[in-house]
Amino acid sequence: MAMLAKRGASTQPNGHAAHDLNLTLQVWRQKSARDAGRMVTYKAEGISPDMSFLEMLDIVNEGLIKRGEEPIAFDHDCREGICGTCGMVINGVAHGPERATTACQLHMRHFHDGDTVTIEPWRARAFPVIKDLIVDRGAFDRIIQAGGYVTAPTGGAQDANAILVPKADADAAFDYAACIGCGACVAMCPNASAMLFTAAKVAHLGHLPQGQPERDDRVLRMVEQMDVEGFGACTNIGECAAVCPKEIPMDVISFMNRDLLRATRRKDREAKTSNE
Ligand code: SF4
Ligand code: FES
Q1: I need a surface site. Which of 55, 73, 154, 201 has the fewest CB within 10 A?
Q2: What is the DSSP letter of 132?
């Protein structure tokens, strides 16, 4: 159990005292993938504004366990915004109301005493619910797996300057590598598209010299797997980028589409040449 914030009066960043919150939660409860699921109302009382959203759920779960009831199942690991496991839809928004913030980094000071808060799992056909707020995001793993590996010889540790990377490319690769695979982009897209996630992975390696040998094959395989998993197409709505906790921008999708077009045309040319 993670260390919980102390309950009682606390101090906000503006120096004002903030008092504990009493909230009403409406939480999606679903025993298994086969269960129909339903919203269940709980009270969350004496919640410190300094607690994280997950710590608030810990408190609610402690109460449920004491009463002999089944605790609310939710995914979490790092609680530092870096592992991507804590996805849930809070008041209709993936990861909740704070921009560029994962559910585990969301603090209760962003809610008001007396609020009703709805909490639901990601809802997408490619992310089936396992239990309550936990969904199976194995589809993302399979997309990454389809990308394969880079065959650049690794050998011993090279001199840091042996492969020069232009600063703009290094910065872009780093920004795209920030994607934590949380799935919020899919959860908020009306098409349940995984384009932002897949494009971030494609663009990360596509900007680095080590990623060039398999660049075409990688984008072809990853996009194919994305379609096999049942994710929808992108229609430029932009909800994905709006809720992405790592602020992956939508223009990365254009990068992937350009790579896909180039790789497809090369494959077509090769096929035509081998038939001649
Ligand atoms: S692109 Fe953003 S929202 Fe989508 S999986 Fe990556 S970090 Fe999460
Ligand atoms: S628990 Fe790791 S990102 Fe939230």
Answers
A1: 154
A2: T
Q: What is the pLDDT of residue 12?
A: 57
> What is the pLDDT at residue 225?
98
Structural domain of 152: 137-275
Give the Å distance between the CA of 241 and the centre of ligand 2: 18
Could you say which of 61, 91, 120 is where a domain stops? 120
Ligand 2 centre to CA of 84 (Å) is: 5
Q: Could you tell me if 58 and 208 are in contact, meaning their C-beta atoms sit under 8 angstroms apart?
A: no
Q: Which atom of ligand 2 is nearest to the CA of 76?
A: 1
Q: pTM for the full model?
A: 0.91
Spans in the chain with pLDDT lower than 50: 1-6, 14-17
Quick check: is 3 in a domain? no
Q: Output the residue whose Cα is nearest ligand 1's atom 7.
A: 179
Count of domains for the chain: 2
pLDDT of residue 9: 52
Residue nearest to atom 3 of ligand 2 (CA): 81
**In a shared domain, residues 199 and 99:** no
Neighbours of 117 (CB within 10 A): 20
The one-character DSSP state at 105 is G
The CATH number of whichever domain residue 91 belongs to comes to 3.10.20.30
Same domain as 85, residue 172: no
